[in-house]
Amino acid sequence: PHLDLSEAKEIFKNLTKQNKTASNIKFPELAFEQLGSNPLLIEYIFLITKGKMLSDLLSEQIQIMQDKNEDFKIEVLRRIVFSNTVGAPVLLQKLIRTLPENYDCQKIIECIVDEFITVDDKNYVYPLHNIRTKHLCELLHGKYINPIDTAMKIISCIPKEYTNIFIRNAVNYPNFNTKEFVLQLIDYSKSKKIELSLVLNN
Question: Which of 76, 131, 150, 197 is the most exposed place for a label (fewest CB within 10 A)?
Answer without folding.
Answer: 197
